[in-house]
Amino acid sequence: MSTDVLEATVMLEALRVTELRLLLSQMGKSKSGLKKDLMKRVVDLLHNECNPELLSAVRELHKLRQVSKDARRSSKPSPVEIISMPACVSPENPQSPISVCTEPQMIKLPFYQTLDTILPPTPLVPMYEGAMQNSDFMFHLSVSQQAQIQNNASVECVFRICYSESIGVEEDQYPPNISVLVNHANCLIECTYSSNKLGTEPSRPCRPIDLTPNLYLTFTNRLSVLWGNFGKSYTVAVYLVRLVSSQDLLDQLRRTAVEQQELCRRRVSEKLRSDPENEISTTGLQVSLICPLAKMRMSVPCRAQGCAHLQCFDASFYLQMNERKPRWTCPVCHRYAPFDELLIDSLLCDVLESCGEDEEEIEYLSDSSWRATRHDKSDKNKERVQHQQIKHQVNCNPMGSVIVDLTQSSSDDEDFHKEETVSTHLEDKSVHFRKCGIVKTTKAKKSKNPGPKQLTKL
Ligand SMILES: [Zn+2]
Ligand SMILES: [Zn+2]
Q1: Do residues 48 and 156 share a domain?
Q2: How many domains does the chain have?
Q3: Do 269 and 233 have their domain in common?
Q4: What sequence ranges are listed for the domain PINIT (predicted)?
Q5: pLDDT value of position 152
Q6: How many angstroms does the Cα of residue 108 sit away from the middle of ligand 2?
Q7: How far from the centroid of its chain's Cα atoms is residue 86's Cα?
């Protein structure tokens, strides 16, 4: 087996980002990050789990990669890469656990609900010498598509473009020097270039381009795509979409993605049990009620399915931020946290409802109760300090309360190693948040005063 692993590790070197991402997503792992991160994740998987399915998937992809390389070598110089993947390895084929398709699958965009396909994914084929290319497409709208556009202001006809050479899901990417015309009229494209260098692609996000303003509802439309050919192949498509707002998504999340209290409680007790240094039994598990993104008290606490931390962030704010700039990155652990994977923490919802407006942090205790540990610093009311002593029982707690002495804490050191500041932009304001899952602090000794306690790794 170990030579298999070694062989597969060597094969990985030949794979591309899209292929590494495909492998990781098939193995249920995060596929975000740079190539070296993806590589490390796959290598770790190979070494630790040594899954035969993963081994054969690596071999399969490597074989395909070799085939496409050979094809490229044998053909006369062409600016376009030849994709010589077999047309869809059938999923019932027991030899390949991964299905490989020639047609790229455009990533699902939560803010654009696809209603219909107007122009199915089609590759951009360079027709002229030199870099600048013009590719024309003709399409017309069906009666039902016309009606949907006329009757609903949030329905649009949009143009999307991504790399062709992908297997698995592909993010939108504009080619260099893109412009899009419908019936000879220019469409508005919001795009920024990171440099003036020839052949630079516009930076992501490359949003779907709205074709609606220049569209003929009943005549044939001519779509012209001007683009720079610098050796990459792209695929274009036109879809009928409904624009979805962050508020719509929040409502949807509230209807369909609330994690049951029982599951939330189980996660807390697992965290309490798995504490390696047994610190938590004396300090509890701290969870901030302040959203790490908005720096304000959360109203709809959520996290992604793949998040290993208890700390939540505010769903409403997170969705608004991604509406402005789709990053879909968890503000706590920085993993890919797409809309489909968000879950509302109903236990923390209850905590937020039942504790005072000025509470900033709570801790879960080993008897599955919780108590507030930190109040708004601006609050100078001494009476509030007393309030901290009140222990809040979590609803349906089957056990009686166990008094845990929370008054002892150790040194005066405060260390924030590994603390990281990440900036993000909301409108014209810059918002900073701290990667708080790994901040470890030890607060000053104050006997008989249950002030802030050790912040342990959540
Ligand atoms: Zn996370
Ligand atoms: Zn309280």
Answers
A1: no
A2: 3
A3: no
A4: 90-244
A5: 96
A6: 42
A7: 30
What average pLDDT does this structure show over 337-353? Answer: 95
| Same-domain check for residues 230 and 357 | no
331: tokens are 């503000």
Domain that holds residue 327: 247-402
Number of the ligand closest to the Cα of 355: 2
* CATH number of the domain bearing residue 236: 2.60.120.780
What is the CA(24)–ligand 2 centre distance, in A?
43
Indicate whether 211 and 252 sit together in one domain: no
How does pLDDT run across 231-249, given as a tens digit for each residue? 999 999 999 999 999 999 9
CA contacts within 13 A on the Cβ side of 111: 17
Tokens of 80: 């376009």
Q: Measure 373 CA to ligand 2 centroid, in angstroms.
A: 8
Shared domain for 287 and 333, answered yes or no, is: yes
CA of 370 to the centre of ligand 2 (A): 10
Q: Which ligand is nearest to the CA of 32?
A: 1
Sign of CA dihedral 238, 244, 249, 252: negative
DSSP labels, 5-69: HHHHHHHHTT--HHHHHHHHHHTT----S-HHHHHHHHHHHHHHT--HHHHHHHHHHHHHHHHHH
Sign of the C-alpha dihedral computed for residues 422, 426, 427 and 429 taken in this order: negative
